[in-house]
Design a protein that fits this description.
Layout lengths: L11 H15 L1 H7 L6 H22 L2
Length: 64
């Protein structure tokens, strides 16, 4: 759980920006989105394999 306390002289916008950074860094939202629906282990492996192939193709096309 992310917790931020307001610093002296800090505006609400700065506080919110710092909070958002902490949330993004802790990957809370990405985990929540990923766990929103159940994926079987075989389905997860298939998706990860597709992502790996796509990454490899991108790297290959960037380095001619």
């Amino acid at each position: 759980m992310v917790h931020v306390e307001r610093r002296q002289g800090e505006t609400e916008e700065q506080l919110l920006k710092r909070f958002r950074k902490k949330v993004a860094k802790s990957r809370i939202l990405t985990d929540a989105r990923r766990k929103r629906w159940y994926l079987s282990p075989s389905e997860q492996r298939r998706i990860e394999k597709k992502k790996a192939i796509r990454r490899a193709r991108r790297r290959q096309s960037r380095n001619p």
